[in-house]
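Aim 2 progress update. The chain analyzed this quarter is reproduced below.
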Amino acid sequence: MKSIGILTGGGDAPGLNAVIRAVVKYGVGQNGWRLTGIEDSFNGLLCRPYRLMPLTPTSCRGILQRGGTILGTTNRGDPFDFPGPEGRVNRASDVKDAVDSLKLEGLIVVGGDGTLRIARRLMEDFGVAVLGVPKTIDNDIAATDVTFGFASAVACVSDALDRLHATAEAHDRVLILEVMGRDAGWIALHGGIAGGADVIVIPEIPWSGERIAAKISDRRKIGRQFSLVVVAEGARPAGEPIVPGKAAARVAHEIETRLPGTDVRVTVLGHLQRGGSPVAPDRVLATRYGVGAVDLVEAGRWGEMVCLRDGRIDGVRLELATQPHPVRVDDPLIHVARAVRIELGG
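Predicted structure tokens:
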């Protein structure tokens, strides 16, 4: 009987429970594993006593459609830089000791680039067998075609724009929607196109206030007195640094300065993009990733991350898995956005 641990790390994403469910139904239900859920990422192995959750087909009923994660998660759980009473300490060896104490063959680690980098260091420095599953609503991991949670986040943005469209048109306002995307603009780009945005600004294309104001003015000339603007949280003006938490506010200020009298309002979508039930494509993709993780473990392919490439589930070495995945300026979707007269600000 294989004894495997599974944990979820970093920010939550719709579809995490679907991954857990698939690993349980396949690994435990069909392959006879003993599967141990580790609560709150690696933190569950650093607590005494350990914080664990035995996972069985019975205990995982009804979780496919649930958002969040039944195991809990954290983005403050780096065992190599762990907060202690006297400052930051390296407790990575405690993770190794816990894995040995629990007689776990290895860990399935579901997370984004930060969590997967921790997993890789545990493997390289301490010999802990790890298998990664990519998770990020930002879709910013290069080794896989798409990450689960992304489609649900895009659907949330699209729905928000549909709602904002009605009130923007009713009041002749410029409504700005700030969405997640500190380093990559995939959510803003996909969500903005799906929701009919007039302007989309992303981190990869520094924006010009003159161009954004000109787009709004051009719409007014043809009788469209309102505009919808989508701003990724990592977007910045040309020649200026990113100011955390100020992306949409800076765009709003620029519009108000260049177009005096314009009624500009900002909506920050925030964690609404992470919450809620996963949409159907994310449920399917997360289930495929869970099954793929079990297949890789059974094949002894520790040290890899499950990935989707050209429609097929495969694995890629962890050292290649966490490369960033920004929007390229020559991406086909950039061409699509410009073709339908969306202003990208630069």
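The longest strand covers residues 3-8. The chain has two domains: 3-148+278-309, 152-274+329-339. These observations will guide the mutagenesis experiments scheduled for the next reporting period.
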